[in-house]
Amino acid sequence: MIKRPLLLLLFSLLFSGLRPLSAGEIPAHISDKNIYLLLDELATLGVIELNSAVRPYSRTFIAGRLTLALSDTTRLSPALIREIRMVLKDFTQETGAGYRGALNLIPQGKATQLSVLPPALVYRDSLFRISVKPVYGIRYLTNDNGNVRHTYGGLEAQAYVGSQWSFWASLRDNYQTNEVLDRPGYFTLGEGGNYKINVQGRVGGDYSEMRAGIAWAWKWGSLSFSKDQPEWGDNYHGANILGGKTPSYALLQLKMDPAKWFSFTYFHGWLVSEVIDSARSYYSEPGRYRAIYRDKYIAANMFTFRPWKGLYVSAGNSVVYSDSKVQPAYLIPFMFFKSVDHTLSHGIDNQNSQMFLNISSRQIRHLHLFASVFVDEFSIARVGDPNRTNFTGYKGGASLSGWPIRNLTLRGEYTMTNPITYQHRVESLTFETNRFNLGHYLRDNSRELWLGLSWRPIAGLYASLSWLRAEHGNDYTYDLGGTVGVDEHPFMETVTWSNTSLAFDMRYQLWNGISVFAGLTASDIRGYDADGLPARYYLNKYTPSLYQGKQLTVEAGFQMGF
Predict the structure, then answer these.
(1) In a domain, 362, yes or no
(2) What is the CATH number of the domain that holds 174?
């Protein structure tokens, strides 16, 4: 066994030559869509460079890109310039600017600042920087089927120690009245949560979501241990590699940017299988059964190359494994995990491995083209065979920003996923955590066309109009002993569920981190008779009752923090 002093010596020798960053590595959560869409528009305008295949971005990275955008404003409209300056007010810990809200209780120049509007407690000295802010939000939806109110509240804290260490935490309690809109299996894009239903007589569901982490950063990389929701794959309406819509899970993550033409991301994650391990479960006392879940993990990496300015080609692979403790071979970041699995699982069933590819091009100013491929299982023998399909998913899309009209962006993307993709014959090896799919929200045997038009007429105001047509086909199981081969299921032979929606949304940022929003959605979501099951079965399986049928849904809300 290696003694602790030796480990510390090896660690110090390995990283002794690394130069520090100006700040640590705190992620900006993917739910802050305004920031992510703003960065996307700036990159498409050619103002900044952006690798958008791997999210979340760090707050340090975002602050640096926004500051860079302001260094040359000739390509920016006055509304975009003011928008960037407004957003940067929430990044004073990263930029070094003094924090001041609209209503402050402590005179400027003090190490501690207390703001009422927006509410925040901020401290800064030569070594330590910390901000503590309340988080609150309310979202109200109503139509002819009823209404749902989603409220959440909590605290978030972000801290930097010196130039290399960072810490963060975010706790929020959520409650949805009447019904839960984002259960496992629903075809919705809301964040997944482990809901407790009808607790203490309250109709609806509530859950608590805790995200936190610690990171150590240097000039060209970072190492972090966190609980978060990674999203991989360029998209505007649901990623098909890692969707980011599951409950958060623990991640040991390595990021490296050693050259302008290359970057690398790896993580090892601790998933929640929700599969009972009967051998480890027991009775803790007479009549009380203590159930234990089977262990489940994921390891994933993504290599990104930039052969030319504006072109990013990313490729990676992952493995979901279970029924063992953490496997050291999967802790080696640069592995091709499928090959490793063939050695570790020699003579027995393999684990569940995947591969993926993402291409993003912003080489033409104003235009962003992207495509991603998710490969769950692939065989050359299936290629060209009209009766067999590989277990793959595809996404392609584009956006046009600032041309021919300033502040206007047109986006569109198409997604299709073959049958059995994301599935596995072993229940503890599915591409899931807490029963939520890690990939695209429509899962396998589905397709979607989404179009969106957005406008930033003034700083702080974002308006969008979008159209969606999504369809899901027959439900198939990964059954090797079935009468039909597991790779012989036809794509979309019968439509079992569809969603056609037209939505108009507006969001206005009152102050940094505080916004109000409203929306109107005309939707037609229905099920169809198929495979001996009625349409109502599929409608209930995939859609909360609030959205079922032809509906005109009105939405309004308030948000403070993300």
Answers:
(1) yes
(2) 2.40.160.130
